[in-house]
Amino acid sequence: MELRREELVRYILPMREGGSLPGLAEASDGFRYVVKMAGAGHGKKALVSELVGGLVAKGFKFKVPELVLLDLDSTFGITEPDEEVQELLRKSEGLNLGLHFLDGAATFDPAVNSIDGLTASKIVWLDAFLTNVDRTRLNPNMMIWNKELWLIDHGASLYFHHSWRDAEEAAKDVFPYIKTHALLPYADRLEEADKLMRQAITPRTLSKIVDFIPEEWLEEEGSEISATERREAYRTFLTRRLAASRLFAEEAIKQRNML
User: Which string of b and e fits 67-102 if b means at least 16 CB within 10 Å?
Assistant: First the structure.
């Protein structure tokens, strides 16, 4: 896995579909990105969730837009007339996160687009593993691009870090919110998916993914928890959750049987 770093050079427009008001922008490499801002919503925690969630999905061989670290300086977007956007850009000076813009992509709708049971089961397993609460029927966060399925927007993953409760205990969460997952009705091979997914990634890979988190995203002024302790909490959560996958897999099977 690689993680590039570029500078934002041109603000194009706000994307008001998302609650955190991401923006479409061009970077110094000439590509356009959907930019998740450090000053929006849950701030840097959402960037950590987006980065870790996206890299974990890539580790499982799902298609995810390239994730790129993006520097935003004080002159970026200075001509934007919207005061709300200007305030967001001011709060987001520094390091942000971009997802390569999938030009012409269409939203995946499981009621319209076909998906096989094993793929659906693997995606349900992935989101239970990440504790991602935001791949619902109303907001599937999946796209069809070049006739292939792409996963986007993992910013609502890893919700244990909003309270910083014990990472080992959080790893055992059965994740009952899986009942709202857009693909749960189609996930008829969850037991098989659990076996395959546990074999598809190693604790070492998960640990390397955690090492990609920028130090400045782990720092929080006034907090008694250090950046090093936060990084280790993410590492503990992911590696212990992989070992305890049977817990959330069985919950997903139970919730599907209740549909």
Answer: bbbbebeeebbeebeeeebeebbeebbebbbbbebb
Q: How far is CA 138 from CA 107, 124, 157, 174, in A?
A: 11, 16, 17, 23
Cβ-Cβ contacts under 8 Å for 109 (sequence gap 6 or more): 140
**DSSP H helices in 154-244:** 167-170, 190-200, 203-211, 215-218, 227-243
pTM over the 0.70 mark:
yes
State the Cα–Cα distance between residues 13 and 4, nearest whole angstrom. Answer: 23
pLDDT-based confidence at residue 176 (cuts at 50, 70, 90): very high
The secondary structure of residue 37, as a DSSP letter, is P
What confidence score (pLDDT) does residue 17 get?
64
For strands 32-36 and 23-27, give the pairing: antiparallel
CA 93, CA 97: separation in Å to the nearest integer? Answer: 12
CA torsion angle 60 208 216 10 (round to 10): -50
Using one digit for the tens of pLDDT, what is the confidence trace for 203-238? Answer: 999 999 999 999 999 998 888 999 999 999 999 999
The C-alpha atoms of residue 24 and residue 22 are separated, in whole angstroms, by 7
